[in-house]
Amino acid sequence: xxxxxxxxxxxxxxxxxxxxxxxxxxxxxxxxxxxxxxxxxxxxxxxxxxxxxxxxxxxxxxxxxxxxxxxxxxxxxxxxxxxxxxxxxxxxxxxxxxxxxxxxxxxxxxxxxxxxxxxxxxxxxxxxxxxxxxxxxxxxxxxxxxxxxxxxxxxxxxxxxxxxxxxxxxxxxxxxxxxxxxxxxxxxxxxxxxxxxxxxxxxxxxxxxxxxxxxxxxxxxxxxxxxxxxxxxxxxxxxxxxxxxxxxxxxxxxxxxxxxxxxxxxxxxxxxxxxxxxxxxxxxxxxxxxxxxxxxxxxxxxxxxxxxxxxxxxxxxxxxxxxxxxxxxxxxxxxxxxxxxxxxxxxxxxxxxxxxxxxxxxxxxxxxxxxxxxxxxxxxxxxxxxxxxxxxxxxxxxxxxxxxxxxxxxxxxxxxxxxxxxxxxxxxxxxxxxxxxxxxxxxxxxxxxxxxxxxx
Amino acid sequence: xxxxxxxxxxxxxxxxxxxxxxxxxxxxxxxxxxxxxxxxxxxxxxxxxxxxxxxxxxxxxxxxxxxxxxxxxxxxxxxxxxxxxxxxxxxxxxxxxxxxxxxxxxxxxxxxxxxxxxxxxxxxxxxxxxxxxxxxxxxxxxxxxxxxxxxxxxxxxxxxxxxxxxxxxxxxxxxxxxxxxxxxxxxxxxx
Lengths: 456, 191
Fold this sequence. Notes:
The complex is a heterodimer. Chain A is α/β, with parallel strands linked by helices. Chain A is built from 18 helices and eleven strands. Chain A has helices at 39-45, 50-57, 60-70, 82-87, 115-122, 124-138, 152-167, 198-205, 234-238, 240-246, 248-251, 285-292, 326-331, 350-364, 370-387, 394-406, 414-428, 430-439; strands at residues 101-106, 142-147, 183-188, 229-233, 255-256, 259-260, 262-269, 275-280, 302-306, 315-316, 340-345. In chain A, the strands form three sheets. Chain A has a five-stranded mixed beta sheet with strand order 8-7-11-9-10, sandwiched between helices. In chain A, strands 3-2-1-4 form a four-stranded parallel beta sheet, sandwiched between helices. A two-stranded antiparallel sheet of chain A has the order 5-6. In chain A, strand 5 and strand 6 (259-260) form a beta hairpin. In chain A, helix 2 (50-57) packs across helix 10. Chain B is of the alpha+beta class. Chain B folds into two domains: 30-89, Arc Repressor Mutant, subunit A; 101-183, Glutaredoxin. Chain B contains seven helices and four strands; from the N terminus they run ααααβααβββα. In chain B, a hairpin with a 4-residue loop joins strand 3 (158-160) and strand 4 (165-166). Chains A and B meet through strand 3, strand 7, strand 11, helix 14 and helix 15 of A and helix 2, helix 4, helix 5 and helix 6 of B.
């Protein structure tokens, strides 16, 4: 058997009140327990595969309807209703039998996001169960689980878990006497952030460069290997078993009416207890950062929070009370994205932070569309010269004029993602950029965020 | 332009006339060929075996050299250009030799807020190599600056070869990790 991780995790994953009706524990069952990847433990302690057996007795369409009724929105970043996405899949007609695929997006690359890792580490069977239910609902032939290459130890664990499910008869030919054949295949990525975009992921899965495709055709019409495909995030698929178990209507009562269910939030940066917290959508950001994560770890005031992974525009103090759901965060000018909160204290230099973020996008741009490839590199170069005291006042206007020329002008949202932090930093912390230009040094006194050891 | 330019963080660009490093090995072992054929059979299209086959090549050849790319193309029966395109697109295929213990240090925002830039400097100081400059003279260490490893909650975070991350790394922890490498507690590169 493959070597399975045995290291203790520094996180506890729990807080007072977790697991009660107010803070239901749907996704992090057994988190922290390194043996929970075994099928036996999952079945005996966490109602494992109950939902799957229930779903396989239902009509496939009824399963989709149940997921629709739950109102769950995709947890990958865009927040598209998952049930609706499932219903886009073309059905078999008497003349034509289709081969459909379900693809799980486990290419977790967004800086600040580390939720899928916890599911894969402690609860792989919940994902497998979700994939089986999704596969049944859409009558798929194969489910592909695409996981980023750095998670090699999790891939080994997931493959061992899939093998256990196969031996239990939950995967393979004629699953539980339904006459339906289905299997799961794990595919390992190779270190490209862009493969988190669904069409880039499909290209990568087909063994090509991870470059996003032109849409339409959408994956539901022409996806992996030219067949109808649905791509869902790890967290979305792992949320399916609780939905079927509880019933869609019951699940919809958690959270707020248009943003149902629980979500795994990751808090990182300058907080006392960084880590993973499962909360109903609509929980105020204050509560998560101050109460659960313990507030600022440095004793300094918190200056900025990125609410949804690196691509989300920053929030400053006046928005720290924002309820964390897709619609409100969007209304306040940011995005709930992948649910990774990055907290920065007063001593953080926003210019450096922005430069670090833009450097990431410049590095990860696939190079297909000119606005993103060139624009991100130019933003990096301009920010770099501001940071190194060679900036000019007109550089700020230049940066501001660059973003609308990148945003919405590319095949995929990577360019838009780079513009989020750039625009918000310029809007909310313009004085820091100006200070950098006039004083040739940081506005703040914090330690450096950028390494000086490049390959030169 | 006379303003400062951001440093290149990946491998140094090739000079005119310079070629990518070549590996001694030129062919796959028969077991590797069988493994690749097994993967090809699992997918509807044999092209899908490109990424897994490149990992196998990296294991067999030590790094993805031009000979490794050619061997992959031959094993799957696809154009060499396609394999070259794929191998150079993804950062986890090392196109140049690496040390026995390859340190990937995340310096992205969450790690940076908790001292990743300083950690990277420490790693370079202790191992005596810089990112993108190949292995140390004794072949033990190499260092790479990588983007987010999804270890943001336990930042700063490094990965040694392709094993489990080492989390909350400070100077003391770094020394422990390096000692553990020397004792052979980590899987060496390409094994």
